Amino acid sequence: MAEPILLTPNEAHVITGVPLKTVHKLIDERLGPPLVRRSRRERRLTVPGVVCVKLDRALPSYLPVAVRKSLYRSIGRAPQRSVFEIDDGPLRHVIDIRPVEAEIGKALSDYRKAMSLIVEDPEIQGGAATFKGTRLLARHVASLLKQGVSLEELREDYPRLTEPMIQAARIFAIAHPQRGRPKPPPWRDRKPLAVQMLPPASAA
């Protein structure tokens, strides 16, 4: 049996468009196993779990939290189903999640396609994320975009940079935020290839 796809809260935020704070709140208060997997103090969502994150926004606002939780438990137990009947006292809610599943399926496909443009190769830039076939750092491009550098300037400075790469840089920076201090450049501790002694500047 293939291992399930597991996504971080940041990735769920990118795929669903739901604010990251709300994603964490849903994990804390409404979603549980098997929609959420925990290991080494990390929390990951299955694809049905990501569907539930999006679904929580799509459901009518009047739907009680207890009904939502019951629905999410049912989705977790039977991820192959798409139509659920949930009892709410004298009421019975019939909920078809296929539109949300289709939306998440497309968003996940787009996300994976964008991330396929980025690699982390120990032999290139010390293993930092770069665009496939280049030495251009994805986080550097994302940082320039955040600073307000225009697309025209980026393309002028980096002719090989394409529109899909630029979009992938934005997505990567959000889905994979950098934690702690940045890694030092791989050349920092290396001996210089050559040393040139310059004459002292002449006095004015």
Topology:
Elements: E1 6-7, H1 9-16, H2 20-29, E2 36-39, E3 42-46, H3 47-58, H4 65-77, E4 83-88, E5 91-96, H5 98-115, E6 118-120, E7 129-131, H6 138-146, H7 151-157, H8 163-175
Antiparallel strand pairs: 1-3, 2-3, 4-5, 6-7
Describe the structure.
The protein is of the alpha+beta class. Helix 3 runs antiparallel to helix 4 (65-77) and helix 6 crosses helix 8. 44% of the residues lie in helices and 14% in strands. The strands form three sheets. It has a three-stranded antiparallel sheet. It has helices at residues 9-16, 20-29, 47-58, 65-77, 98-115, 138-146, 151-157, 163-175; strands at 6-7, 36-39, 42-46, 83-88, 91-96, 118-120, 129-131. The protein has two domains: 6-109, no CATH class; 116-175, Winged helix-like DNA-binding domain superfamily/Winged helix DNA-binding domain (Arc Repressor Mutant, subunit A, Orthogonal Bundle). It has eight helices and seven strands; from the N terminus they run βααββααββαββααα.
Number of strands: 7
| Main beta-sheet annotation | 3 strands, antiparallel
Q: Strand fraction band?
A: 5-15%
| Class derived from helix and strand content | alpha+beta
Chain-averaged pLDDT: 89
Question: Total helix count?
Answer: 8
Order of helices and strands: EHHEEHHEEHEEHHH
The helical percent reads 40-55%
Summed up, the domain count is: 2
Report the C-alpha radius of gyration, rounded: 23 Å
Structural shape = elongated
- N- to C-terminal separation? 78 Å
As laid out across the biggest beta sheet, the strand order is: 1-3-2
Low-confidence segments, given as residue ranges, are none
